[in-house]
Design brief:
Helix content is 39%, strand content 12%. It is of the alpha+beta class and 319 residues long. The radius of gyration is 19 Å and the shape is globular.
Length: 319
């Protein structure tokens, strides 16, 4: 059982183009540790992508290539082994009734091959700050919660782009589904499933290379930011420093593999939240958990040989 939903094991050949794929936490990635800690996916998902026509996962993530110092991540087409070899599990999301992967698959097919873009470093900071402010145990006063979250929403809209994404944002962008602030709120006391092979259970602690990539990516993105983007990030930073300064210390602790975030579980807010839960969010504030709970459960992909490119089908069509 994962996230309270029955999970079947399926072959990779069962995955259709355009379907949403969710991936469990990378064992050493700093960003994955931070997202799992704040997002609280019931199944421990930290990454999201989509299936393409060639049995690959299309997703956005940061990385560093010594032979190309300006390439710090973006959209990549990876075989399933890319994640299996790291001890991660790949799940297919069961889409809600009435939702078809056909439209997103066509959009993905039409997305220019040379437009891999860049990884949305700024958006990870934006969504992380919003999630921390919304943690049920954080218990910020209504004004503090409102200021941090709304500045994150402003920044998310300002940083909207078709050229840089982070993982769940790209999926939400192609599906065109408007997620709400209520769906962004992290759950209380998540139970992460640890069933399955021992080598698939995530371990905590980042690598120095990941941290270096994060720092370089943030600096690189700031060089090309518009004045509006810079100002919205400054406004968010000011709000966090004033109303939720624990975010900086606690998030750094998670990134460096120290103690997880924890608050007084008995603390309670005395006034009602000023936030409107039906507020539609920018895709930049969509998380793997939000995709997970949107669906009807997941199926785990058997760690076997992934689909091969459909060259034979193409040759038959050409003939």
């Amino acid at each position: 059982m994962l996230g309270g939903t029955h999970v079947d094991t399926i072959a990779t050949t069962s995955v259709e183009p355009g379907e949403i794929l969710l991936v469990t936490q990378h064992p050493t990635n700093a960003l994955a540790a931070l997202i799992v800690e704040l997002d609280r996916s019931p199944s421990g998902f930290s990454h999201a992508g989509m299936a393409d026509d060639y049995g690959m996962i299309v997703s956005s993530y940061p990385y560093y290539q010594p032979d190309d110092v300006l390439d710090l991540g973006g959209l990549r087409h990876d075989p399933f082994e890319h994640f299996w070899d790291e001890g991660q599990r790949v799940h297919r999301l069961r889409l809600p009734d009435g939702v078809s992967p056909g439209g997103p698959a066509r959009l993905l097919r039409d997305y220019p091959d040379d437009r891999e873009g860049a990884f949305g470093f700024a958006k990870v900071v934006i969504v992380a700050a919003a999630l921390h402010a919304l943690l049920p145990e954080n218990v910020l006063e209504p004004e503090a919660e409102y200021e941090v979250v709304m500045r994150a929403v402003d920044a998310g809209w300002a940083w909207a782009s078709e050229d840089d994404f982070y993982c769940a944002e790209f999926v939400a962008y192609l599906y065109g589904r408007g997620f709400t602030l209520g769906e962004l709120r992290p759950p209380t006391n998540p139970v992460i499933d640890d069933d399955g092979p021992d080598d698939c259970v995530p371990l905590r602690g980042p690598t120095g290379l990941t941290l270096a990539t994060i720092r370089m990516g943030a600096a690189f993105m700031s060089l090309f930011a518009t004045s509006e983007q810079r100002e919205t990030l400054r406004a968010l930073k000011r709000a966090v420093w004033r109303y939720d300064p624990a975010f900086f210390e606690e998030s750094i602790d998670v990134v460096f593999g120290d103690e997880p975030i924890h608050h007084d579980a008995l603390a309670r807010r005395h006034e009602a939240s000023r936030l409107e839960d039906d507020l539609v969010l920018p895709p930049a504030l969509v998380t793997p958990r939000m995709l997970e709970t949107w669906g009807r459960g997941t199926d785990v992909l058997a760690a076997s040989t992934p689909l091969r490119p459909r060259e034979a089908d193409q040759e038959l069509a050409a003939g």
